[in-house]
Design goal:
binds NADP nicotinamide-adenine-dinucleotide phosphate, 18% strand, globular, alpha/beta, 7-stranded parallel beta sheet, Rossmann fold
Length: 313
């Protein structure tokens, strides 16, 4: 299959492109700069110059492909227009793909996020069939954007696109993770001399290794039915306290509980306070059963113990 990949130079995309090529696909990576073009090329893909904000070019690139994996994200709009501007731009991108691919049955697989308003009250792990909801103003920003985009992507199934979403957990780990949530937590722990966790730290965070995530994007592209959401998670979730303790033990720092009433005050977690309290128990059963996906890479705690997140010096 000739696959168009956007965001191929990013943390996750740099695993997706080699995964596709190893499976025999021909990959074209969208690149908006010379630097990105060189990175896409170094991964073994053909380069198509363009920016996801240029919708005509994006439509042409999608129409010339046999399928699309969308990992780019209009984060650049965050400062100027806030999260709603990001959401609006991302939905326009999905609708552009829809125009290019309508009636073809070609696959479009886009990045989504684990978590939706209401999931916290389910009383059971969230499944792939639990819908993404747009969420109100109170809901945590990034997830709100993702849910709006997810609804747009899944809706393209009604227009003859084999569209699906891979819901990605807050932690996508790998030995090339430089800007994800783990490096942020590790940096914060070093700065504060301790690693905090909220309350009793029993809240569950799902995670996944980027190589496993890459194989899930490939499987969804190759054989995923239309209009579905997949859970790219290695298990039902890891207690936040265990993550904090694993980081603390590598750094030789204590893991400490931050009481709920202190958590939201300016202090330890800062802008991360909303995120660290997330409790997202979730299941990947439907994903494994339908696509035959088998996470095979080191788990989050194993990856932390492997040490590459803690280079000497
Ligand atoms: N835990 C997680 O990491 C997580 C969780 C949920 C969802 N996601 C989503 O999964 C996707 C991939 O995540 P990631 O961590 O791999 O992202 P990343 O490392 O930040 O990479 C972002 C990619 O998007 C490209 N990009 C950004 N703006 C673009 C534009 N205007 N035109 C063309 N390309 C553009 C960047 O290209 P350049 O090389 O040109 O900068 C880069 O390749 C993102 O949509 C992210 O929001 C991630």
């Amino acid at each position: 299959m000739h696959v168009l990949v956007t965001g191929g130079t990013g943390h996750i995309g740099s695993y997706v492109i080699p995964e596709l090529i190893a499976a025999g696909h021909e990959v074209t990576g969208l690149a908006r700069s010379d630097e990105s073009a060189a990175a896409v090329s170094a991964l073994g893909a053909k380069v198509r110059r363009g920016d996801v904000s240029e919708l005509d070019g994006l439509k042409a690139a999608a129409a010339e492909s046999d399928g699309v994996i969308h990992l780019a994200h209009r984060q650049d709009l965050l400062l100027s227009g806030g999260i709603d501007a990001v959401a609006a731009a991302e939905v326009q991108i999905m609708l552009a793909y829809g125009e290019a691919l309508a009636g073809t049955g070609k696959p479009l697989v886009a990045a989504g996020s684990m978590g939706s308003p209401g999931w916290e009250n389910l009383g059971r792990p969230a499944t792939e069939e639990d819908p993404a909801l747009p969420g109100g103003d109170k809901y945590k920003g990034t997830l709100r954007v993702r849910n709006v985009v997810e609804i747009a992507v899944v809706g393209l199934a009604d227009r003859g696109v084999r569209s699906s979403i891979v819901r990605i957990p807050p932690i996508a780990h790998s030995d090339t993770d430089k800007a994800g949530f783990l490096p942020l937590l590790i940096g914060l722990a070093k700065e504060k001399g301790a690693i905090g966790y909220p309350g009793d730290g029993a809240n569950l965070w799902p995670a996944v290794h980027c190589r496993d995530l890459a194989s899930l994007f490939r499987l969804a592209l190759e054989k995923g039915p239309a209009g579905k959401s997949w859970h790219g998670i290695e298990g039902e979730g890891i207690r936040f306290r265990e993550i904090a303790e694993a980081i603390g033990s590598r750094l030789g720092l204590p893991a400490v509980s931050i009481p709920a009433d202190v958590l939201m005050l300016p202090g330890y977690f800062g802008f991360l306070a909303n995120l660290v309290t997330l409790d997202l128990p979730a299941s990947n059963l439907i994903t494994r059963q339908t696509l035959g996906w088998r996470p095979a890479q080191p788990s989050l705690l194993t990856d932390l113990h492997n040490g590459h997140y803690f280079p000497a010096g």
